[in-house]
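=== RUN LOG ===
request id: a7f3
mode: sequence -> structure
chains: 1
length: 218
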Amino acid sequence: MSIRVVVADDQTAVREGLALMLSLLDDVEVVGEAADGEAALELVAAHRPDVVLMDLRMPRRDGVSATAEIRAAHPETRVVVLTTFADDEHILSALQAGALGYLTKDAGRVQIAHAVRAAAAGQSVLDPQVQQRLVAAAVQGGGSATTAEAPAAAEGLTARETEVLALIAAGLSNREIAERLYVTEVTVKSHINRLFAKIGVRDRAQAVRYAYERGIRP
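=== RESULT ===
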């Protein structure tokens, strides 16, 4: 079955270009285009898409509030942010609203297609620039914990689970984590499932935010 997508962006040329690019993919069907957050909500209610590709700065309703409402009313629909903004405030606001992916408009068509497919499968994709900002902010700010051990003890994470969480925050894939730790991908998935349950997150984007807020880093 095709991945059903709504594209939300107030710039007509950008919106139509994204819709055209996605429609050329064999496994994607663009079911609607929205010029603002209100229109995005209406299209989601009408079409129940798998993924919304969401801009942040739009008239009538911005992408953050639209994302939060979509996730509350239609939790089966995943949101991938595609925006020009890569500052801490926009990144955290979007992730806290429930966005599963976050890309800047420097992303190429391959990266955008990958993010849409990953989101449809319930997987998070964060732009490398976004990952770098989250990790840099954690290093500079660090929250209340100066090392990974303090939050790990508070949440009951083992040392290995904390290590896996730090590597997720650094943007590594399951395969890369497995190679780094000299274990199998199955083992990595097992660690991820357990640590997600312990810290109460659903996906990698939320895990990255959790690590960022607590200063957990490689």
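=== NOTES ===
Confidence is low (pLDDT under 50) at residues 142-154.
The longest strand covers residues 28-34.
=== END ===
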